[in-house]
Amino acid sequence: MTPPPIRAVIADDQMMVRQGFTVLLNAEPDIEVVGQAVNGLDAVAKVAELAPDVVLMDIRMPELGGIEATRRITSAEGSAVKVLVLTTFDLDEYVYEALRAGASGFLLKDASADELAHAVRVVAAGDALLSPNITKRLIVEFSRTAGAPRPPLKARVGELTERETEVLTLIAGGLSNAEISRQLIVAEQTVKTHVGRILVKLGVRDRTQAAVFAYESGLVRPAGL
């Protein structure tokens, strides 16, 4: 049986962006755009009404910005919605705040149709978008502003096994399951099992939040710090 399509909502105050992304995504057999939102308040309402799998969220919008909308969506009780942040610049300062607010990844607005569809699939699968290349820079830059390690988070990292800690460190470095598998010389399914246990023990939604946790807890420090 063919699985149901990934349900997506596009939140952007620019009509051309909403319509363009809708056309591109609806051309994919496994993705369906079920709604569009013109600002953050509209996005929160659309998510409550339509229960999509993924929201493509612009950051700068009137009435309610994308960061606060992301926070409200991801913190809602029982929410499993993934938020993919849309940005114009690869080092947009607000992206760091969006990651902290619960976003699962980000995508540049000039991404190709293939990159757009891939990003939606990755985020919907819960793997989170920790690549391509600029994402590593984003997480490192984010962690520079995170301040001193937070003791409660450090204590939760202490609940991980030695192998889980090793896997978390590699996740924070932006490695995929396949890359971690090769580096640790273990099966990729074993890596997936470790990742699942890490998410449960840390109480985080996905790999992106696990990476942010690794930096905020002090487990991983950016190079040069």
From TrEMBL:
Alphabetically ordered keywords of this record: DNA-binding, Phosphoprotein, Transcription, Transcription regulation
UniProt domain Response regulatory: residue ranges: 7-124
The HTH luxR-type domain, residue ranges: 153-218
Domain of life, source organism: Bacteria
One annotated GO molecular function: DNA binding
Database matches in CDD domains: LuxR_C_like, REC_NarL-like
Signal peptide start and end residues: none
Pfam families documented for this protein: GerE, Response_reg
Keyword hit for Zinc: no
Family annotation (SMART domains): HTH_LUXR (SM00421), REC (SM00448)
Database matches in PANTHER family: TRANSCRIPTIONAL REGULATORY PROTEIN NARL-RELATED (PTHR43214:SF24), TWO-COMPONENT RESPONSE REGULATOR (PTHR43214)
Protein name: Two-component system response regulator
Origin species: Streptomyces griseus subsp. griseus (strain JCM 4626 / CBS 651.72 / NBRC 13350 / KCC S-0626 / ISP 5235)
